[in-house]
Design a protein that fits this description.
Elements (H helix, E strand, L loop, with lengths): L4 H13 L14 E5 L2 E4 L4 E4 L12 H11 L11 H11 L8 E5 L2 H16 L3 E5 L8 H4 L15 E4 L9 H24 L4 E6 L15 H11 L3 E5 L24 E4 L10 E5 L1 H10 L10 H16 L2 H21 L4 E7 L2 E8 L2 E5 L1 H13 L2 E2 L1 E3 L5 E4 L7 H22 L1
Parallel strand pairs: 3-14, 5-6, 5-7, 7-8, 8-9
Antiparallel strand pairs: 1-2, 2-3, 4-10, 9-10, 11-12, 12-13, 12-16, 15-16
Helix pairs in contact: 2-9, 3-9, 6-7, 10-12, 11-12
The protein binds 4'-deoxy-4'-aminopyridoxal-5'-phosphate (PMP).
Protein backbone atom coordinates (compact mmCIF):
# COMPACT_ATOMS: atom_id res chain seq x y z
CA UNK A 1 0.00 0.00 0.00
CA UNK A 2 1.15 3.52 -0.77
CA UNK A 3 1.67 6.28 1.74
CA UNK A 4 -1.10 8.84 2.00
CA UNK A 5 -0.02 12.32 0.96
CA UNK A 6 0.25 13.81 4.46
CA UNK A 7 2.12 10.76 5.74
CA UNK A 8 4.50 10.94 2.78
CA UNK A 9 5.11 14.63 3.52
CA UNK A 10 5.84 13.82 7.17
CA UNK A 11 8.20 11.08 6.04
CA UNK A 12 10.09 13.55 3.83
CA UNK A 13 10.41 16.03 6.71
CA UNK A 14 11.67 13.26 8.97
CA UNK A 15 14.33 12.20 6.47
CA UNK A 16 15.35 15.85 6.00
CA UNK A 17 15.93 16.27 9.74
CA UNK A 18 16.46 12.96 11.55
CA UNK A 19 17.98 11.42 8.42
CA UNK A 20 17.26 8.16 6.61
CA UNK A 21 19.14 5.85 8.99
CA UNK A 22 16.87 5.72 12.00
CA UNK A 23 14.91 2.50 11.51
CA UNK A 24 11.16 2.39 10.89
CA UNK A 25 8.98 -0.70 10.99
CA UNK A 26 7.10 -1.98 7.91
CA UNK A 27 7.38 -1.63 4.14
CA UNK A 28 5.05 1.36 4.41
CA UNK A 29 5.70 3.16 7.71
CA UNK A 30 2.82 3.53 10.13
CA UNK A 31 1.95 7.01 11.32
CA UNK A 32 0.37 6.53 14.71
CA UNK A 33 -1.47 9.40 16.30
CA UNK A 34 -3.33 8.03 19.34
CA UNK A 35 -3.39 5.13 21.76
CA UNK A 36 -5.61 3.70 24.45
CA UNK A 37 -4.92 0.51 26.39
CA UNK A 38 -3.71 -1.96 23.77
CA UNK A 39 -5.27 -0.03 20.86
CA UNK A 40 -3.43 2.29 18.50
CA UNK A 41 -4.91 4.59 15.86
CA UNK A 42 -3.15 5.72 12.69
CA UNK A 43 -3.40 9.03 10.85
CA UNK A 44 -6.17 7.66 8.63
CA UNK A 45 -8.26 6.71 11.66
CA UNK A 46 -7.62 2.97 11.37
CA UNK A 47 -7.19 1.09 14.66
CA UNK A 48 -4.56 -1.54 15.35
CA UNK A 49 -4.10 -3.96 18.20
CA UNK A 50 -0.66 -3.50 19.74
CA UNK A 51 0.85 -6.95 20.02
CA UNK A 52 4.41 -5.68 20.21
CA UNK A 53 5.11 -2.85 22.63
CA UNK A 54 6.20 -3.43 26.22
CA UNK A 55 6.97 0.20 27.08
CA UNK A 56 3.25 1.12 27.44
CA UNK A 57 3.14 -1.54 30.15
CA UNK A 58 -0.09 -0.38 31.81
CA UNK A 59 -1.59 0.74 28.52
CA UNK A 60 -1.11 3.48 25.94
CA UNK A 61 -2.02 6.94 27.23
CA UNK A 62 -2.79 5.48 30.64
CA UNK A 63 -4.79 8.20 32.44
CA UNK A 64 -3.51 7.30 35.94
CA UNK A 65 0.10 7.71 34.79
CA UNK A 66 -0.74 10.85 32.81
CA UNK A 67 -2.51 12.42 35.80
CA UNK A 68 0.31 11.53 38.20
CA UNK A 69 2.92 13.07 35.89
CA UNK A 70 0.78 16.13 35.24
CA UNK A 71 0.05 16.66 38.94
CA UNK A 72 3.75 16.35 39.81
CA UNK A 73 4.85 18.66 36.97
CA UNK A 74 2.40 21.25 38.28
CA UNK A 75 3.67 20.80 41.85
CA UNK A 76 7.44 20.59 41.63
CA UNK A 77 10.14 18.87 39.61
CA UNK A 78 13.73 18.71 40.83
CA UNK A 79 17.04 17.01 40.48
CA UNK A 80 18.10 14.86 43.40
CA UNK A 81 20.18 17.30 45.44
CA UNK A 82 17.10 18.33 47.37
CA UNK A 83 14.94 16.07 49.47
CA UNK A 84 11.58 15.10 48.06
CA UNK A 85 9.25 12.38 49.30
CA UNK A 86 8.14 11.20 45.83
CA UNK A 87 11.57 9.82 45.06
CA UNK A 88 11.83 7.97 48.36
CA UNK A 89 8.26 6.68 48.06
CA UNK A 90 9.13 5.24 44.67
CA UNK A 91 12.46 3.79 45.79
CA UNK A 92 10.70 1.96 48.64
CA UNK A 93 7.87 0.69 46.44
CA UNK A 94 10.24 -0.60 43.77
CA UNK A 95 12.63 -2.25 46.23
CA UNK A 96 9.66 -3.98 47.89
CA UNK A 97 9.34 -6.07 44.73
CA UNK A 98 12.86 -7.52 45.16
CA UNK A 99 13.99 -10.27 47.50
CA UNK A 100 16.90 -10.72 49.83
CA UNK A 101 19.91 -8.49 49.63
CA UNK A 102 18.80 -6.51 46.60
CA UNK A 103 17.63 -3.58 48.70
CA UNK A 104 19.38 -0.51 47.28
CA UNK A 105 19.11 1.32 43.97
CA UNK A 106 20.46 3.96 41.64
CA UNK A 107 17.89 5.73 39.48
CA UNK A 108 18.86 6.55 35.89
CA UNK A 109 17.07 7.56 32.67
CA UNK A 110 17.28 4.55 30.36
CA UNK A 111 18.26 0.92 30.00
CA UNK A 112 21.56 1.96 28.46
CA UNK A 113 22.42 4.19 31.40
CA UNK A 114 21.51 1.40 33.80
CA UNK A 115 23.80 -1.12 32.07
CA UNK A 116 26.59 1.45 31.74
CA UNK A 117 26.46 2.17 35.46
CA UNK A 118 26.25 -1.53 36.36
CA UNK A 119 29.42 -2.21 34.36
CA UNK A 120 31.18 0.68 36.07
CA UNK A 121 30.21 -0.63 39.50
CA UNK A 122 31.46 -4.10 38.57
CA UNK A 123 34.74 -2.80 37.17
CA UNK A 124 35.50 -0.78 40.29
CA UNK A 125 34.44 -3.56 42.66
CA UNK A 126 36.54 -6.25 41.01
CA UNK A 127 39.39 -4.18 39.65
CA UNK A 128 38.90 -6.22 36.46
CA UNK A 129 37.77 -5.24 32.99
CA UNK A 130 36.63 -8.52 31.45
CA UNK A 131 33.00 -8.96 30.46
CA UNK A 132 31.04 -12.04 29.45
CA UNK A 133 28.04 -11.62 27.13
CA UNK A 134 25.84 -13.70 24.86
CA UNK A 135 26.99 -13.93 21.25
CA UNK A 136 23.73 -12.43 19.96
CA UNK A 137 22.66 -9.65 22.30
CA UNK A 138 21.92 -5.96 22.71
CA UNK A 139 22.29 -3.99 25.93
CA UNK A 140 22.33 -0.35 24.87
CA UNK A 141 23.81 2.53 22.93
CA UNK A 142 26.72 3.91 24.98
CA UNK A 143 30.30 3.53 23.87
CA UNK A 144 31.15 0.72 26.30
CA UNK A 145 27.91 -1.10 25.48
CA UNK A 146 28.55 -0.75 21.73
CA UNK A 147 31.89 -2.50 22.36
CA UNK A 148 30.05 -5.57 23.63
CA UNK A 149 27.14 -5.60 21.20
CA UNK A 150 26.91 -8.82 19.22
CA UNK A 151 23.30 -8.83 18.04
CA UNK A 152 23.10 -5.71 15.89
CA UNK A 153 25.38 -3.94 13.49
CA UNK A 154 27.39 -1.30 15.30
CA UNK A 155 30.54 0.32 14.05
CA UNK A 156 32.49 0.16 17.24
CA UNK A 157 35.43 -2.15 17.68
CA UNK A 158 34.45 -5.26 19.62
CA UNK A 159 36.22 -4.99 22.97
CA UNK A 160 39.33 -7.11 23.48
CA UNK A 161 38.08 -7.38 27.09
CA UNK A 162 34.78 -8.97 25.98
CA UNK A 163 34.06 -12.67 25.47
CA UNK A 164 30.83 -13.75 23.81
CA UNK A 165 29.44 -17.23 24.45
CA UNK A 166 26.69 -19.12 22.63
CA UNK A 167 23.67 -19.44 24.91
CA UNK A 168 22.32 -22.99 24.61
CA UNK A 169 18.75 -23.52 23.40
CA UNK A 170 17.28 -26.88 24.37
CA UNK A 171 13.98 -26.45 22.52
CA UNK A 172 12.65 -29.85 21.49
CA UNK A 173 15.44 -31.82 23.17
CA UNK A 174 15.03 -34.74 25.54
CA UNK A 175 16.41 -34.34 29.05
CA UNK A 176 19.62 -36.21 28.35
CA UNK A 177 20.54 -34.19 25.24
CA UNK A 178 19.66 -30.99 27.09
CA UNK A 179 22.06 -31.86 29.90
CA UNK A 180 24.82 -32.70 27.44
CA UNK A 181 24.21 -29.36 25.69
CA UNK A 182 24.31 -27.57 29.05
CA UNK A 183 27.63 -29.15 29.96
CA UNK A 184 29.20 -28.21 26.62
CA UNK A 185 27.91 -24.64 26.99
CA UNK A 186 29.26 -24.36 30.53
CA UNK A 187 32.64 -25.59 29.31
CA UNK A 188 32.53 -22.66 26.87
CA UNK A 189 31.90 -20.33 29.83
CA UNK A 190 34.91 -21.82 31.64
CA UNK A 191 37.04 -21.27 28.56
CA UNK A 192 35.85 -17.66 28.18
CA UNK A 193 36.67 -16.84 31.81
CA UNK A 194 40.08 -18.53 31.52
CA UNK A 195 40.79 -16.60 28.33
CA UNK A 196 39.94 -13.27 30.05
CA UNK A 197 42.25 -14.20 32.90
CA UNK A 198 45.08 -15.22 30.58
CA UNK A 199 44.73 -11.95 28.68
CA UNK A 200 45.14 -10.09 31.97
CA UNK A 201 41.61 -8.63 31.97
CA UNK A 202 40.14 -10.88 34.64
CA UNK A 203 36.37 -10.98 34.91
CA UNK A 204 34.37 -8.02 36.16
CA UNK A 205 30.88 -9.17 35.16
CA UNK A 206 28.56 -11.19 33.01
CA UNK A 207 25.79 -9.15 31.41
CA UNK A 208 22.80 -11.21 30.30
CA UNK A 209 19.07 -10.88 29.66
CA UNK A 210 17.51 -13.71 31.74
CA UNK A 211 15.06 -14.66 28.97
CA UNK A 212 17.38 -13.94 26.04
CA UNK A 213 14.87 -11.90 24.07
CA UNK A 214 17.21 -10.49 21.43
CA UNK A 215 18.50 -14.03 20.89
CA UNK A 216 14.92 -15.15 20.14
CA UNK A 217 13.52 -16.20 23.56
CA UNK A 218 15.74 -19.20 24.25
CA UNK A 219 14.79 -22.22 26.31
CA UNK A 220 18.04 -22.63 28.22
CA UNK A 221 18.65 -26.11 29.63
CA UNK A 222 17.96 -26.32 33.35
CA UNK A 223 21.01 -25.55 35.44
CA UNK A 224 22.79 -23.52 32.74
CA UNK A 225 22.16 -20.07 34.20
CA UNK A 226 22.93 -21.32 37.70
CA UNK A 227 26.17 -22.87 36.42
CA UNK A 228 27.15 -19.69 34.60
CA UNK A 229 26.42 -17.46 37.59
CA UNK A 230 28.34 -19.79 39.88
CA UNK A 231 31.39 -19.72 37.57
CA UNK A 232 31.37 -15.94 37.12
CA UNK A 233 30.89 -15.24 40.81
CA UNK A 234 33.47 -17.86 41.88
CA UNK A 235 36.00 -16.11 39.61
CA UNK A 236 35.25 -12.87 41.46
CA UNK A 237 32.95 -11.35 38.83
CA UNK A 238 29.48 -9.90 39.33
CA UNK A 239 26.31 -11.24 37.73
CA UNK A 240 24.28 -8.49 36.04
CA UNK A 241 20.71 -9.38 35.08
CA UNK A 242 19.51 -7.05 32.31
CA UNK A 243 15.78 -6.96 33.02
CA UNK A 244 14.94 -4.20 30.58
CA UNK A 245 12.73 -6.69 28.70
CA UNK A 246 12.05 -9.45 31.23
CA UNK A 247 10.99 -7.32 34.20
CA UNK A 248 7.87 -5.87 35.79
CA UNK A 249 5.76 -9.03 35.89
CA UNK A 250 5.66 -9.61 32.14
CA UNK A 251 6.57 -13.28 32.57
CA UNK A 252 3.42 -13.79 34.63
CA UNK A 253 4.87 -16.10 37.25
CA UNK A 254 7.56 -13.77 38.60
CA UNK A 255 8.03 -10.04 38.92
CA UNK A 256 11.65 -10.39 37.72
CA UNK A 257 13.18 -12.66 35.11
CA UNK A 258 16.16 -13.67 37.24
CA UNK A 259 13.67 -15.24 39.68
CA UNK A 260 13.20 -18.04 37.14
CA UNK A 261 16.56 -19.36 38.32
CA UNK A 262 18.22 -20.23 41.63
CA UNK A 263 20.72 -17.38 41.38
CA UNK A 264 21.59 -14.22 43.27
CA UNK A 265 22.38 -11.43 40.84
CA UNK A 266 24.62 -8.68 42.16
CA UNK A 267 23.07 -6.05 39.92
CA UNK A 268 19.72 -5.89 38.14
CA UNK A 269 19.14 -3.28 35.45
CA UNK A 270 15.70 -1.92 34.55
CA UNK A 271 14.20 0.37 31.92
CA UNK A 272 11.58 0.30 29.17
CA UNK A 273 8.22 -0.30 30.95
CA UNK A 274 9.29 1.32 34.20
CA UNK A 275 7.66 4.72 33.54
CA UNK A 276 5.16 3.56 30.88
CA UNK A 277 7.08 5.64 28.34
CA UNK A 278 8.42 8.34 30.61
CA UNK A 279 12.21 7.83 30.52
CA UNK A 280 13.34 6.16 33.72
CA UNK A 281 15.63 3.24 34.53
CA UNK A 282 17.38 1.77 37.54
CA UNK A 283 20.23 -0.35 38.83
CA UNK A 284 19.13 -2.49 41.75
CA UNK A 285 21.96 -3.74 43.95
CA UNK A 286 23.13 -4.55 47.46
CA UNK A 287 23.99 -2.16 50.25
CA UNK A 288 27.65 -3.22 50.10
CA UNK A 289 28.01 -2.52 46.37
CA UNK A 290 26.10 0.76 46.57
CA UNK A 291 28.22 1.97 49.48
CA UNK A 292 31.46 0.96 47.83
CA UNK A 293 30.67 2.77 44.58
CA UNK A 294 28.90 5.73 46.18
CA UNK A 295 31.70 6.23 48.68
CA UNK A 296 34.31 6.54 45.93
CA UNK A 297 32.44 8.38 43.22
CA UNK A 298 30.31 11.45 43.01
CA UNK A 299 27.48 9.93 40.98
CA UNK A 300 25.09 12.63 39.87
CA UNK A 301 22.48 12.38 37.15
CA UNK A 302 20.44 15.53 36.55
CA UNK A 303 17.15 14.07 35.38
CA UNK A 304 17.32 10.66 37.05
CA UNK A 305 15.13 10.07 40.05
CA UNK A 306 13.22 13.30 39.64
CA UNK A 307 9.87 13.60 41.39
CA UNK A 308 8.15 13.48 37.98
CA UNK A 309 9.95 10.27 36.95
CA UNK A 310 9.17 8.82 40.35
CA UNK A 311 5.50 9.78 40.04
CA UNK A 312 5.39 7.94 36.69
CA UNK A 313 7.10 4.90 38.21
CA UNK A 314 4.81 4.85 41.23
CA UNK A 315 1.73 5.12 39.04
CA UNK A 316 2.92 2.11 37.00
CA UNK A 317 3.42 0.01 40.13
CA UNK A 318 0.05 1.19 41.46
CA UNK A 319 -1.73 0.21 38.25
CA UNK A 320 -0.01 -3.18 38.26
CA UNK A 321 -1.20 -3.84 41.80
CA UNK A 322 -4.75 -2.49 41.41
CA UNK A 323 -5.40 -4.31 38.16
CA UNK A 324 -3.41 -7.41 39.19
CA UNK A 325 -1.54 -7.28 35.92
CA UNK A 326 0.98 -10.00 36.71
CA UNK A 327 -1.80 -12.52 37.37
CA UNK A 328 -3.55 -11.22 34.28
CA UNK A 329 -0.34 -11.71 32.25
CA UNK A 330 -0.17 -15.32 33.37
CA UNK A 331 -3.81 -16.13 32.56
CA UNK A 332 -4.00 -14.20 29.27
CA UNK A 333 -0.54 -15.45 28.35
CA UNK A 334 -1.61 -19.07 28.83
CA UNK A 335 -4.69 -18.45 26.71
CA UNK A 336 -2.58 -17.04 23.86
CA UNK A 337 0.10 -19.72 24.17
CA UNK A 338 -2.50 -22.52 24.02
CA UNK A 339 -4.01 -20.99 20.89
CA UNK A 340 -0.53 -20.56 19.39
CA UNK A 341 0.24 -24.25 19.96
CA UNK A 342 -2.99 -25.16 18.14
CA UNK A 343 -2.15 -22.88 15.21
CA UNK A 344 1.37 -24.34 15.09
CA UNK A 345 -0.09 -27.82 14.54
CA UNK A 346 -1.90 -26.55 11.44
CA UNK A 347 1.13 -25.32 9.52
CA UNK A 348 4.57 -26.68 8.60
CA UNK A 349 5.78 -23.04 8.64
CA UNK A 350 5.78 -22.99 12.41
CA UNK A 351 8.45 -24.64 14.48
CA UNK A 352 8.80 -24.00 18.18
CA UNK A 353 6.37 -21.93 20.25
CA UNK A 354 8.43 -19.90 22.70
CA UNK A 355 8.01 -17.63 25.69
CA UNK A 356 5.89 -17.25 28.80
CA UNK A 357 3.54 -14.76 30.38
CA UNK A 358 2.83 -12.06 27.82
CA UNK A 359 6.01 -12.55 25.79
CA UNK A 360 5.80 -15.00 22.88
CA UNK A 361 7.88 -16.21 19.99
CA UNK A 362 7.12 -18.40 17.00
CA UNK A 363 9.91 -19.99 15.00
CA UNK A 364 9.07 -19.57 11.32
CA UNK A 365 10.76 -22.40 9.45
CA UNK A 366 11.05 -23.82 5.92
CA UNK A 367 8.31 -26.39 5.34
CA UNK A 368 10.60 -28.37 3.05
CA UNK A 369 13.47 -28.24 5.57
CA UNK A 370 12.04 -28.21 9.11
CA UNK A 371 14.36 -26.50 11.55
CA UNK A 372 15.73 -24.19 8.85
CA UNK A 373 14.80 -20.55 9.52
CA UNK A 374 12.50 -18.78 7.07
CA UNK A 375 13.00 -15.04 7.63
CA UNK A 376 11.18 -14.13 4.40
CA UNK A 377 7.98 -15.85 5.53
CA UNK A 378 8.39 -14.24 8.98
CA UNK A 379 8.51 -10.81 7.34
CA UNK A 380 5.44 -11.67 5.21
CA UNK A 381 3.54 -12.71 8.32
CA UNK A 382 4.38 -9.45 10.09
CA UNK A 383 3.21 -7.39 7.10
CA UNK A 384 0.02 -9.46 6.71
CA UNK A 385 -0.74 -9.13 10.43
CA UNK A 386 -0.42 -5.37 10.04
CA UNK A 387 -2.82 -5.41 7.08
CA UNK A 388 -5.22 -7.29 9.36
CA UNK A 389 -4.76 -4.70 12.10
CA UNK A 390 -2.32 -6.36 14.54
CA UNK A 391 1.21 -5.14 15.21
CA UNK A 392 3.96 -7.67 15.93
CA UNK A 393 7.67 -7.97 15.06
CA UNK A 394 10.54 -10.46 14.98
CA UNK A 395 13.76 -11.36 16.80
CA UNK A 396 16.54 -13.91 16.81
CA UNK A 397 19.89 -14.43 15.10
CA UNK A 398 18.10 -15.56 11.91
CA UNK A 399 15.39 -12.88 12.11
CA UNK A 400 12.77 -15.63 11.91
CA UNK A 401 11.21 -15.64 15.40
CA UNK A 402 7.91 -13.76 15.51
CA UNK A 403 7.90 -11.53 18.56
CA UNK A 404 4.64 -10.84 20.37
CA UNK A 405 4.74 -8.80 23.55
CA UNK A 406 1.56 -6.77 24.01
CA UNK A 407 0.93 -4.16 26.70
CA UNK A 408 0.09 -5.94 29.98
CA UNK A 409 -3.49 -4.63 29.88
CA UNK A 410 -4.45 -6.57 26.75
CA UNK A 411 -8.01 -7.79 27.30
CA UNK A 412 -9.31 -11.30 26.65
CA UNK A 413 -11.27 -10.21 23.55
CA UNK A 414 -8.14 -8.50 22.22
CA UNK A 415 -6.10 -11.65 22.88
CA UNK A 416 -8.75 -13.56 20.93
CA UNK A 417 -8.42 -11.07 18.07
CA UNK A 418 -4.64 -11.50 18.10
CA UNK A 419 -4.82 -15.29 17.83
CA UNK A 420 -7.63 -15.17 15.22
CA UNK A 421 -5.61 -12.84 12.99
CA UNK A 422 -2.54 -14.97 13.57
CA UNK A 423 -4.39 -18.15 12.55
CA UNK A 424 -5.68 -16.45 9.36
CA UNK A 425 -2.27 -15.02 8.49
CA UNK A 426 -0.49 -18.32 9.03
CA UNK A 427 -3.12 -20.11 6.91
CA UNK A 428 -2.81 -17.56 4.08
CA UNK A 429 0.97 -17.56 3.99
CA UNK A 430 1.04 -21.38 4.23
CA UNK A 431 -1.34 -21.83 1.31
CA UNK A 432 0.55 -19.23 -0.71
CA UNK A 433 3.64 -21.40 -0.39
CA UNK A 434 2.16 -24.48 -2.02
N1 LIG B 1 18.87 -3.98 27.41
C1 LIG B 1 17.97 -4.65 26.67
C2 LIG B 1 17.78 -6.12 26.90
C3 LIG B 1 17.23 -3.97 25.70
O1 LIG B 1 16.32 -4.63 24.98
C4 LIG B 1 17.44 -2.58 25.51
C5 LIG B 1 16.65 -1.77 24.50
N2 LIG B 1 16.21 -2.47 23.39
C6 LIG B 1 18.40 -1.93 26.30
C7 LIG B 1 19.08 -2.66 27.25
C8 LIG B 1 18.69 -0.46 26.15
O2 LIG B 1 17.68 0.30 26.69
P1 LIG B 1 17.46 1.83 26.24
O3 LIG B 1 17.05 1.81 24.81
O4 LIG B 1 16.40 2.32 27.17
O5 LIG B 1 18.74 2.55 26.46
Amino acid sequence: SLLSEPTAALMARRVATIGPHSPLFYNTPLELVRGEGAWLTDAQGRTYLDGYNNVPHVGHANPVVADAVNRQLRTINLHTRYLNHMVVDYAEALLDTFNGELDRLFLVNSGSEANELALRIARQHTGNRGILVSDFSYHGNTSSLAELTTGLEVHEEFGSHVRAVRIPDATGMDAQSAMALRDRALAEVDAAIASLQEAGHGISASLLDPIFSTEGLLNVPSGYIEGLAQRVQAAGGLFIADEVQSGFGRLGNHMWGHQLYAIKPDLVTLGKPMGNGHPIGAVITTEALLDEFGGRNMYFNTFAGSPVSSAAGLAVLGEMRERQLMTHARATGEFIADAMREIAKSSPLIGAVRGQGLFFGYDIVRPEAPGQPHPVAAKQLIELMKDKGVLISRIGRDDNVLKMRPPMVIEREQAQLLVDRLAESVAEITSGLS
